[in-house]
Amino acid sequence: MIRLLLADDEPMIRAGIRAILSADADIEIVAEAADGRAAVQLTQRHRPDVALLDIRMPQLDGLAATMEIRRTTPNTGVIVLTTFGEDSYIADALGNGASGFLLKSGDPRELLAGIHAVAAGAAYLSPEVAKKIIAELNSSGAAARKTRIATAQQRVEQLTNREREVLSLVGSGLSNAEIAGRIHVVEGTVKTYVSAILSRLAVKNRVQAAIVAYQAGLTDD
């Protein structure tokens, strides 16, 4: 069972999300919040597997709440949900430690898939968000792209062969359990590899690691 905290300041939106989640018997909403500060407090109290946060809330917005939750309750994965698709929101959310970013206008199936992915230790970006990130990576001139690629490759070179293999699978969106099955080790070993990779690359979460993997050419995207 995936234990989830839902935070959105609009009751109608919460009701709609609640209805979507009720279709999945593996998801249990353990708490709801109407502002960011309450979301942080309830996360600390209930320790859910996933916190689903609206990006714009009173008291504490979703970006600040994400940072506080990741600081105080690091075992809770955070998904940021918004109607705003601007690149700045995406960058700030991921920079604050969010493991997922979804648009409210997206397919409800993406919401369920994202919750399951983040609960399993993976990262999840809606297709629209993934396209924005890749487009941003590819938008600058050839010289800038070449520099980013070289920098990413240098960062990846410090990893062992096995860590590079795990990073490539992280970049492909696989969860720890899926990676364990792919490379024939126990899931705990994968968690150790992922922790080492995040530390060596000096990134906050799997999404940022996946971007490095993409830039270094470790994924097929």
Key terms:
221 residues; alpha/beta; Rossmann fold; Arc Repressor Mutant, subunit A; 2 domains; six-stranded parallel beta sheet; 11 helices; 6 strands; 14% strand; globular
- Structural class of the helix and strand makeup? alpha/beta
Number of helix segments? 11
**Which range does the strand content fall in?**
5-15%
As residue ranges, the low-confidence spans are: none
Shape: globular
- Based on the coordinates given, report the CATH architecture of the largest domain: 3-Layer(aba) Sandwich
CATH fold-level topology of the largest domain: Rossmann fold
Query: What top-tier CATH class of the largest domain fits best?
Result: Alpha Beta
Secondary-structure map:
Layout: E1 2-7, H1 11-21, E2 27-33, H2 36-46, E3 50-54, H3 62-72, E4 77-82, H4 87-95, E5 100-103, H5 108-119, E6 124-125, H6 127-139, H7 142-157, H8 161-171, H9 176-183, H10 187-201, H11 206-215
Parallel strand pairs: 1-2, 1-3, 3-4, 4-5, 5-6
Helix pairs in contact: 2-3, 8-10, 8-11, 9-10
Summarize the structure.
The protein is α/β, with parallel strands linked by helices. It has helices spanning 11-21, 36-46, 62-72, 87-95, 108-119, 127-139, 142-157, 161-171, 176-183, 187-201, 206-215; strands at 2-7, 27-33, 50-54, 77-82, 100-103, 124-125.
